[in-house]
Design a protein that fits this description.
The complex is a heterodimer.
Chain A: H1 19-29, H2 31-41, H3 43-67, H4 78-88, H5 96-111, H6 124-135, E1 143-144, E2 157-158, H7 161-166, H8 177-182, H9 194-206, H10 213-232, H11 240-245, H12 249-256, H13 267-287, H14 294-303, H15 305-311
Antiparallel strand pairs in A: 1-2
Helix pairs in contact in A: 1-4, 1-9, 2-3, 2-9, 3-4, 3-5, 4-5, 4-6, 5-6, 6-14, 9-12, 10-12, 10-13, 13-14, 13-15
Chain B: H1 6-14, H2 30-35, H3 40-63, H4 73-95, H5 97-103, H6 114-124, H7 129-159, E1 161-162, E2 165-166, H8 180-210
Antiparallel strand pairs in B: 1-2
Helix pairs in contact in B: 1-7, 3-4, 3-6, 3-7, 4-5, 4-6, 6-7, 7-8
The chains are: A mainly alpha, B mainly alpha.
Chain lengths: ~325, ~210
């Protein structure tokens, strides 16, 4: 039997890429940032991440099994990525029941009603994060001060860098660049360490799971626009480097905006998408009511992805 | 529709409850549905006011359907509806000032509620006065049911209370349900649930009829 020739239609050359592999690579790329968070914020990070991932997987399984009557496909790892990214976007002292509600929103509202993986127009983790931010404004904006020891020393809360700027607080309290790079600043626990996130992003770039277009155009737009405002009026607008390293910009640009399902398919489309995200982010940061605008801007740009895809259709071969 | 048997009269009344619920199935009157359902009290007040307007305007329009010239029927309907809305608005202002304060502009806005105008155009100007009365009452009750359902869910989750009686401590309130996004979410999920149940019942009926 092993001498039989297999005959099939094209394509004949396959890469060994699969949804499963991509998702687990993304999980792997987030591990450095996770370890840094554990170092700065301690045990609550592990608990919240476990709860978030566990609930996302569980709800996806239950919905597929008992509401849609499909064969559950939770082993593709997409729910794990959603859970991980959602956990990265909350402060480490968040009550666990709010994390569970976040998982319900991510899977039960943002993902499964649209048809599951590949059909959701908006990034599920971001929808959940924004919902939680609007639903629990107090709990979602009390940021524990990072204390690099093992323990439960998260009783002290302090402002985020962007919160300080927005409220016109004492700007001398802004962390140094070194601290911002390493992650010693207030914020959602996955977004603090720029270096760890960039290591993860480099891994994804090397694996060719993401391309440079969205992160680079996103971050460059924020940097350039913030730079123009800073040069025009240094007293009112802070240094663009602070905008670059604070808040969720790097996490958003490298891991959320690049979500394959909710971002454009063509390179030029990706650049337009990234520039739009960057522009909206900096507008919200400088003039909006919220101190941080990365999640809102990515969601807003997610909404126009179909239009971008239509506008930047690749030319047909031989036309 | 002109069938005089009691069963069809009853079905004119009850079809508005769920089967042809104006808010959840026909998706009419979304503006008040989204705007005033922050509490059960508001929802009941809005539902009762709209039911009154629907009932009265349906009856009067049905009675006048042969007198109103076809070309100016919409303005005439609006005048009739506006009359009843002004009446109920002044009554609420006079006797229930707190409800009037919390419903605000949405009582005068019943004039442009598409359920009222829709029933006038789709039902009252083709049917008898009594049928129109039943239709207006049924649709009004259906609207009230939908509003109360949405209002109850939003009040319990958002303010932890029902009819103003608080039973969930403040730290567990989910603010989004009091705000506009929560209204859209709850509206969508209630609509999905009711459609699911109605479809299931229809299928069952068809199944029974086939056997």
């Amino acid at each position: 039997m092993d001498k039989l020739l297999h005959i099939s239609g094209s394509p004949h050359v396959h890469s060994d890429e699969s949804v499963k592999k991509i998702m687990w690579s993304v999980v792997l790329s987030l591990v450095p940032a996770f370890l840094v968070s554990v170092y700065y914020f301690g045990l609550p990070v592990i608990i919240l991440t476990a709860v978030s991932i566990g609930c996302c997987v569980l709800f996806e399984y239950l919905i597929q099994r008992f509401m849609l009557h499909q064969k559950p496909s939770v082993d593709d790892g997409s729910a794990v990525v959603t859970g991980l990214l959602l956990a990265f976007n909350v402060p480490s002292n968040l009550p666990i029941w709010i994390m569970v509600i976040g998982a319900i929103v991510a899977i039960g509202i943002a993902k499964m009603p649209f048809g599951g993986l590949g059909h959701n127009p908006f990034n599920p983790a971001l929808v959940a994060r924004v919902t939680l931010l609007i639903a629990f404004p107090v709990q979602m904006t009390s940021w524990p001060v990072p204390t690099p020891i093992w323990g439960f020393a998260d009783a002290v809360t302090g402002p985020t860098t962007l919160g300080l700027i927005k409220e016109g607080g004492d700007l001398s309290q802004i962390p140094t660049y070194a601290n911002m790079l390493l992650g010693q600043m207030g914020g959602s626990f996955g977004e603090v360490s720029a270096i760890a996130l960039l290591i993860g992003a480099a891994f994804l770039l090397w694996k060719r799971i993401i391309t440079w277009h969205i992160p680079v155009s996103f971050i460059a737009t924020v940097f350039v626009v913030a730079g123009i405002f800073h040069l025009a009026n240094p007293a009112e607008y802070v240094n663009p480097f602070i905008h670059l390293l604070s808040g969720g910009l790097i996490l958003g640009a490298c891991f959320m905006a690049t979500d394959m399902v909710t971002s454009p398919t063509s390179p030029w489309g990706m650049i337009v998408f990234g520039c739009g995200c960057g522009l909206l982010t900096i507008i919200i940061r400088l003039f909006g009511a919220y101190p941080e605008g990365v999640s809102f801007s990515i969601l807003l740009m997610n909404a126009v992805v179909p239009l971008i895809n239509k506008g930047f259709k690749p030319k047909q071969f031989a036309h | 529709m002109s069938n005089n048997n009691n069963n069809s009269k009853l079905s004119i009344l009850t079809k508005g409850f769920f089967r042809e619920n104006p808010t959840l199935i026909l998706v009419l009157g979304c503006c008040p549905t989204l705007a005033v359902t922050t509490s059960v009290t508001n929802a009941l007040g809005m539902g009762a006011a709209t039911t009154f307007v629907l009932l009265m305007s349906n009856m009067l329009i049905s009675a006048l359907k042969n007198i109103i010239p076809d070309k100016v029927r919409i303005p005439s309907y609006i005048v009739i509806i506006a009359t009843f809305v002004s009446m109920i608005d002044l009554l609420i202002q006079g006797f229930l000032p707190s409800l009037s304060a919390s419903l605000g502009v949405f009582i005068p806005l019943i004039v442009v509620n598409c359920i009222v105008l829709g029933r006038a155009e789709a039902f009252a100007n083709k049917n008898t006065v009594f049928d129109s009365l039943l239709d207006g009452l049924g649709m009004g009750i259906g609207f009230t049911i939908a509003l109360t359902l949405i209002g109850a869910i939003r009040e319990i989750l958002g303010s932890g209370s029902i009819m103003g009686f608080q039973f969930i401590p403040a730290e567990y309130h989910i603010l989004i349900f009091v705000l506009a996004p929560g209204a859209f979410l709850v509206f969508g999920f209630v609509m999905a649930a009711v459609r699911f149940l109605v479809n299931k019942r229809e299928e069952k009926k068809k199944h029974c009829a086939a056997e």
